[in-house]
């Protein structure tokens, strides 16, 4: 008799849900169903004119913050014609192509209301999932062998409250519902928060507003998407030999190195009104290419935190009243898994108890995982994909988790490291460095490239993996579902980067070593 197929429920058909479906399908042996509460797949990257509660939301102008090669799926290189920084429509299409084979598993307008342990959970590890059909209002409950929670965590706006905020007569909103900027025409706008959303909001509104103020408590290091020679910054800096310095040197030293050799050349942090008082590696990087020019033109003025609101304006710390019409909170997002049974995802001493940010350690069965619950320093999609490939192995019974004690100890140790680097916050536990985290997850199921072996068997590939852009195809060189095209994809990744602009190969638009040396020497005599 063939072994019984396991029934798996995937909750949410955003990018993470689609990646999970693809990985489970690739492993095989599962009956898959995916519940999606809206009427379309794609989650955050399915653009909506009207934001949906609890679903990530972008502006019409949002583009990805990582480039196509750096964020690619490990066996699905983007087309060479694709733009490097994709617009929301392009990333949506890329993932539609990628998940073509599993779209049939998705049931739309189905909202999961409850996930509970089944009556025989202790023995079987099964879950009872209650779903509501949002069109008919009907609810139904079924039992599954496994549940993957893929509902995202950048979708529940965090609204601060400042003294006097309710006296304010202007408009207050969160970037979650910012869809256009025409309502800011000739208005004075205050944007609160200097993450990616804050910078986007300040830059966009300043194109039409009378004046924009960007208020920030702790400042930020801002990186451009465009790096040296017009190449995407991340393809230049997201390389093993650079990122893995973090494994050998204190993060403050590596941060100082990066700030002085790269960041400060774009815009010296001492030029900001509110200077960041943290190492580059202690907070999410904030990405924006126009911010510098907006500061230089005075269209955006940086201000410290808001002390309090007045009837028609705000008072920044140590400042007089600044009158304004609109306040946009770009203050980030909180997390919640509202349908999960109490006590599954637990917060203890400020720590989120999830093994490798995925598995509740106290459950006796590894049949439920939280997917994509990461704040990645770097691109988020490759780590999500490795999570999904690992979960597929775990659900198939080919990988085991360690004991509860070992898992808890690991969570605690890492959380403490994270607190010392990032400071305590809501999501400190789930902050990860991309390459390190990817390696860690890949090594759970044998997909981490054996660099030592590659050094001897294929030195050219070795050099590319260490010194070239760190692309996820490297996790298909070995292990389950390895891919014959992986080596070629790694070797040619820079070709796909330069192609959309130049229609040429990387080598044809690159300077040789001596030219670069001469350029570097010439730069020494410039101011
Ligand atoms: C403005 C903005 C820009 C961003 N830019 C980047 C970027 O450049 N690079 C990057 O890597 N990340 C970026 N992110 C992070 C973003 O969260 C990820 O890119 C990615 O979209 C996360 O996918 P997800 O599937 O985990 O979550 P989501 O995209 O939020 O999808 C979750 C899905 O689950 C569904 N769902 C929720 N609750 C239920 C329920 N109870 N029942 C059924 N279905 C449910 C939702 O409808 C949704 O479709 C950005 C986020 C925002 C908001
Ligand atoms: N593709 C893109 O271009 C793009 C666009 C938008 C967002 N994103 C991604 O989406 C995620 C969310 O980004 P985000 O910018 O919305 O959130 P975020 O990165 O969490 O930034 C929130 C900002 O708000 C500030 N803040 C929070 N609470 C505050 C309070 N009570 N008072 C004053 N300031 C407060 C924070 O300041 P402190 O630092 O002082 O805490 C921080 O500057 C990020 O991972 C980001 O990379 C990407
Ligand atoms: C900057 O950070 C250091 C330690 O990280 C702290 O001692 C100092 O008070 C901070 N300065 C400001 C102006 O916040
Ligand atoms: C891009 O956004 C993702 C997800 O929000 C984040 O984890 C990552 O740090 C951001 N990357 C950069 C380079 O800002
Ligand atoms: C620097 C450090 O130890 N970071 C850890 C933060 O927490 C995550 C999740 O447990 C780990 O993967 C990181 O290694």
UniProtKB/TrEMBL annotation:
The places in or outside the cell where this protein is found are: Endoplasmic reticulum membrane
Designated gene of the protein: Fmo2_7
Q: How does it sit in the membrane?
A: Single-pass membrane protein
- The residue stretches assigned to a coiled coil in this entry are none
The domain of life for this entry's organism is Eukaryota
Q: Which InterPro entries match?
A: FAD/NAD-bd_sf, Flavin_mOase, Flavin_mOase-like, Flavin_mOase_1, FMO-like
Role, per record: Broad spectrum monooxygenase that catalyzes the oxygenation of a wide variety of nitrogen- and sulfur-containing compounds including xenobiotics. Catalyzes the S-oxygenation of hypotaurine to produce taurine, an organic osmolyte involved in cell volume regulation as well as a variety of cytoprotective and developmental processes.
Family in the record: Belongs to the FMO family.
The record lists the catalysed reaction(s) as:
N,N-dimethylaniline + NADPH + O2 + H(+) = N,N-dimethylaniline N-oxide + NADP(+) + H2O; hypotaurine + NADPH + O2 + H(+) = taurine + NADP(+) + H2O; hypotaurine + NADH + O2 + H(+) = taurine + NAD(+) + H2O; trimethylamine + NADPH + O2 = trimethylamine N-oxide + NADP(+) + H2O
Necessary cofactors: FAD
Q: Which GO terms describe its molecular function?
A: flavin adenine dinucleotide binding; hypotaurine monooxygenase activity; N,N-dimethylaniline monooxygenase activity; NADP binding; trimethylamine monooxygenase activity
Q: By what name is this protein known?
A: Flavin-containing monooxygenase
Entry EC number(s)? 1.-.-.-
User: Mind telling me which GO cellular component terms the entry cites?
Assistant: endoplasmic reticulum membrane
Cleavable signal peptide: 1-24
Q: What class of enzyme is it?
A: oxidoreductase
Keywords assigned by UniProt? Answer: Endoplasmic reticulum, FAD, Flavoprotein, Membrane, Monooxygenase, NADP, Oxidoreductase, Signal, Transmembrane, Transmembrane helix
């Amino acid at each position: 008799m063939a072994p019984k197929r396991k029934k798996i429920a995937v909750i949410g058909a955003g990018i993470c849900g689609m990646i999970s479906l693809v990985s489970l399908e690739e492993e095989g042996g599962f009956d898959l169903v995916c519940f999606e509460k809206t009427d379309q797949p794609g989650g955050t990257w399915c653009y909506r004119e009207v934001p949906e509660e609890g679903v990530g939301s972008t502006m019409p102008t949002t583009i990805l913050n990582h480039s196509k090669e750096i964020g690619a799926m490990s066996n699905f290189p983007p087309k060479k014609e694709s733009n490097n920084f994709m617009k929301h429509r392009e990333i949506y299409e890329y993932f539609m192509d990628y998940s073509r084979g599993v779209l049939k598993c998705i049931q739309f307008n189905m909202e999961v209301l409850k996930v509970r342990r089944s009556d025989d959970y202790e023995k079987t590890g099964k879950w009872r999932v209650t779903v509501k059909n949002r069109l008919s209002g009907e609810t139904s409950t079924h039992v599954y062998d496994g549940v993957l929670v893929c509902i995202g965590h950048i979708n529940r706006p965090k609204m601060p409250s400042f003294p006097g905020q309710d006296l304010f007569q202007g408009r207050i909103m969160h970037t979650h519902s910012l869809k256009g900027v025409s309502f800011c025409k000739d208005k004075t706008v205050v944007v609160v928060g200097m993450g990616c959303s804050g910078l986007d909001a300040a830059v966009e509104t300043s194109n039409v507003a009378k004046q924009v103020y960007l208020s920030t408590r702790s400042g930020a290091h801002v990186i451009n998407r465009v790096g040296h020679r017009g190449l995407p910054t991340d393809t230049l800096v997201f390389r093993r030999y650079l990122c893995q310095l973090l494994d050998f040197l204190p993060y403050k030293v590596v941060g100082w190195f990066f700030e002085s050799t790269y960041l400060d050349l774009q815009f010296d942090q001492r030029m900001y009104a509110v200077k960041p008082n943290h190492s580059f590696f202690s907070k999410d990087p904030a990405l924006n290419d126009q911010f510098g020019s907006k500061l230089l033109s005075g269209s955006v003025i940086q201000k410290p935190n808001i002390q309090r609101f007045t009837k028609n304006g705000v008072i920044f710390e140590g400042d007089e009243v600044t009158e304004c019409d609109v306040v946009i909170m770009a203050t980030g997002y909180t997390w919640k898994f509202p349908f999960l049974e109490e006590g599954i995802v637990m917060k203890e001493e400020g720590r989120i108890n999830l093994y490798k940010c995925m598995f509740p350690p106290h459950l006796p069965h590894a049949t439920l995982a939280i997917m994509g619950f990461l704040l990645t320093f770097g691109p988020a999609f490759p780590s999500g994909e490795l999570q999904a490939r690992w979960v597929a192995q775990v659900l198939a019974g080919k990988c085991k988790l360690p004991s509860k004690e070992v898992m808890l100890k690991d969570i605690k140790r890492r959380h403490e490291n994270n607190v010392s680097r990032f400071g305590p916050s809501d999501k400190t536990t789930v902050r990860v460095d991309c390459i390190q985290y990817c390696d860690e997850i890949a090594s759970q199921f044998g997909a981490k490239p054996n660099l030592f072996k590659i050094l001897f068997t294929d030195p050219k590939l070795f050099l590319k993996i260490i010194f070239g852009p760190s692309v996820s195809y490297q996790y298909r060189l070995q292990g389950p579902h390895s891919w014959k095209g992986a080596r070629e994809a790694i070797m040619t990744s820079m070709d796909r980067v330069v192609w959309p602009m130049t229609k040429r190969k990387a080598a044809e638009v690159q300077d040789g070593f001596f030219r670069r040396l001469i350029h570097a020497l010439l730069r020494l005599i410039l101011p």
